[in-house]
Amino acid sequence: MNLSFFDQFTSPCLLGIPLILLSMLFPALLIPTLSNRWITNRLSTLQLWFFHLITKQLMIPLNKKGHKWALILTSLMMLLLTINLLGLLPYTFTPTTQLSMNMALAFPLWLATLLTGLRNQPSISLGHLLPEGTPTLLIPALILIETTSLLIRPLALGVRLTANLTAGHLLIQLISTATTALLPIMPTVSILTALILFLLTILEVAVAMIQAYVFVLLLSLYLQENV
Question: How many domains does the chain have?
Answer without folding.
Answer: 1
